[in-house]
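The methods section describes the discrete structure representation at length, but only in general terms. An entry of this sort, consisting of the sequence and the corresponding backbone structure tokens, reads as follows:
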Amino acid sequence: MCATCGCDTHTHTHSHTHDEKHIAVEKDVLYENNLLAARNRGFFDAKNILAINLVSSPGSGKTTLLERTLTDLKEQVSFSVIEGDQQTTRDADRIHATGTKVVQINTGKGCHLDAHMVMHALQGMHPHEDGVLFIENVGNLVCPAMFDLGEKERVVVMSVTEGDDKPLKYPDMFHTSHLCIINKIDLLPYVPFSLDKAIANAKRINPKLEVITLSCTSGEGLDKWYQWLESKKS
């Protein structure tokens, strides 16, 4: 998959190892990424832009959450969106249909966005000053956890169809996030998912993690999400 974070490393064994070289390369990559992330962060601060990195596994409902948010709050907030996917412009097309400024990043075989990709996208899109920029990352709960994009907030989205042990299986993502959204709660009567267990597991990994439960379909809980956004913007 991705040579940058090392997830394309072959799994068959050798009589020798490359651990030292691999660790050095990873450190170099993250060092360069963090330098660019700091530049992105400086840009956001100068323009008073609230940058939010949305992360999740595929199918959690990130894009649907964005559609609802952009539609419901478009009269109050100036939004811009960077869409990250391996292929297609399908999600960007959905965002564009809401009337929101959007730029698509296709990562090909890459499994995450990085600070350089975001910097390049910013140069072409000119996000609204004093607004909110959503960066919808590639659907993946592993590699995006390593890469700072310069965001102020990282929001991890999980759905009730994924299992309440998700935070324990992918601890790095939950540890580095500020907010966890548990989506699709309208499906709770139909799936073996415990909200209490999911929240406890998330808090076990990150005691400071805020949690909001909602449904983009029914609208339940969206008000809490919008209140959270307003609190971070002010």
Observations:
- Strands lie at 50-56, 79-85, 101-106, 132-136, 153-159, 179-183, 210-213.
- Residues 50 and 232 are 8 Å apart (CA to CA).
- The longest strand covers residues 50-56.
